[in-house]
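Worked example

This section walks through a single chain of length 144. The input is the sequence exactly as stored; nothing has been trimmed or padded.
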Amino acid sequence: MDLKKFLSNLKVKTPVVNIEGSRRTNTPEVQLPQGSVFLKNRIDQAQGNVGLGVVTPSGIEFGGDVSGSYTKGEVEFPQELQNYGAPESEKYGGGLTVDQLQAYLNIPVTENLDVNVSGGVNPYYRDEQGNKNVFGQVGMRYNF
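Given that input, the structure is written out below as tokens.
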């Protein structure tokens, strides 16, 4: 098989990109003996997924996607709280994380019947016993 010819005949489907995010600022109130003061809390968040599929000349389709999230924030403490030992500010959030990796393979068997296999993993999640979150699925699709 000529690999160069095979690769040139692949059709890349339209990539899927879904990303949304926000920047929020709030000012929680803290009661002190001399009166109320307000914190300044700012958080930046985004989440989404990016995927790509490929179709071979024989109709076999394969692809995958990756989903993730981003969180960073900072709380600024007023001088009144710093007098009680609070820091000037405190940063929090994990930055960018990959939440899930997924892949799929669809194989046409006949004109109306496809077999599909898919799976995925959450690379960071582990349950209480230390097990990874891995999933798989096998199915058939019949087009009437």
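What to look for: The longest strand covers residues 89-108.
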